[in-house]
Amino acid sequence: MTYRFRILTLNHIASQGLERFPERRYVVGKAVESPDAILVRSHDMHAMPIAPSVRAIGRAGSGTNNIPVAEMSGRGVPVFNAPGANANAVKELVLAALLIAARNIVPALDFVAALDAAPGDLDRQVEDGKKAFAGIELPQRTLGIVGLGAIGSLVADTALKLGMKVVGFDPEITVDAAWRLPSSVHKAQSTEELLKRSDFVTLHVPLLPVTRHLINAPRLAAMKPGSVLLNFARDALIDAEAVRASLDAGHLKYYLCDFPSAGLRGHPRVVALPHLGASTEEAEANSAVMVVDQVREYLENGAIANAVNFPNVDMPRESPYRVAIANANVPNMLGQISTAMGHAGLNIHNMVNKSRGEMAYTLVDVDSPVPESAVDAVAAIDGVLSVRAIPQVP
Fold it and tell me: What's the number of domains the chain is made of?
């Protein structure tokens, strides 16, 4: 009987994704025990026990701060995400935020909601009060984009089509992202240069130790008086106390974000949304489809794409018998793996090995079934984190 992979879901995962797990080979649900893989969206996994059976974790979204990635790396477990699957949804929300700020929409709405006048006086009060909410138009204004990945490049393209000038900064930009970026985006040499030139600044970088409080008091002071800050990436990219102080001083005009916080909630020039960036039917479906396909490829063939802690690795099947090995990126590991397989009587047909930082990953196709003793022998090598034999799925 064909083995059925067991998939535990910790949140609602869009049906468009879950339908891609064939029923004859997968058991999927919220109460699955001893799962081979876990699918998650926002559930905080740091405090939960993760079963030893888990071979992979898939995040139906981009950020993985809710997953103990370092712990999973130590166990040789890849953590997949869905970069770019929600990019259009976030781009559209950033565009909405730009327009909200430029036209003073929120205070204007508050003004109208507070009107309490007899019908004859309403028109007069509206005409008398509307001048306080006069805004600006976006063409020829400068948008600074910190982070030029899938979302940042879409925001840049949209802003240019609206007639805005765009300045971008991303010291970690990938070759693929650079190709996607419109040629008319001016590349700043530093965050400070970008801030000084921009009327609006939007953040699109991951939360890492180096980006925590990326926008702090000195950098807020470098921004143009009356400029607008948008943060639809991660809450902790900004120093909330410094942002509040800049707003109170009248230097920063608005702060618009997707993350309500105690320190900024209720401020009259803060617009905070309840984490709506990826909350569209399309984004949820795209993310689910993308991460399900990646988890399936890993479980069935050992291939890795878009894991935040593993290199991308793929190798066409040339044999029904495959071994997948995650190990520390140290010298002579391949030699030891090859020796252990040779002693087990396995002939290596094809092999690929790639590394990413301290992690390395190897796929090996062999010409005969892989005995458990061979898996145990490889697993016993110092530095090997996980090993599994992957028979070809019929």
Answer: 3
Same domain as 163, residue 51: no
Given the DSSP bridges, would you call strands 79-80 and 56-59 parallel, antiparallel or unpaired?
parallel
Q: Which residues span the domain enclosing 369? A: 311-394
Identify the three-state secondary structure at position 175: helix
Confirm if 372 and 343 have CB atoms less than 8 A apart: no
Phi, psi of 342 (to 5 degrees): -60, -45
CA gap 350, 364 in Å, rounded: 6
At residue 379, what is the residue type?
A
Do 91 and 175 sit in the same domain of this protein?
Answer: yes
pLDDT 10s digits, 11-51: 999 999 999 999 999 999 999 999 999 999 989 999 999 99
Ranges assigned E (strand) in 162-317:
165-169, 186-187, 200-203, 227-231, 252-257, 270-272
- Please determine, for residue 176, whether its predicted confidence score (pLDDT) is greater than 80: no
Give 362's Cβ-side CA count (13 Å radius).
24
252 and 290: one domain?
no
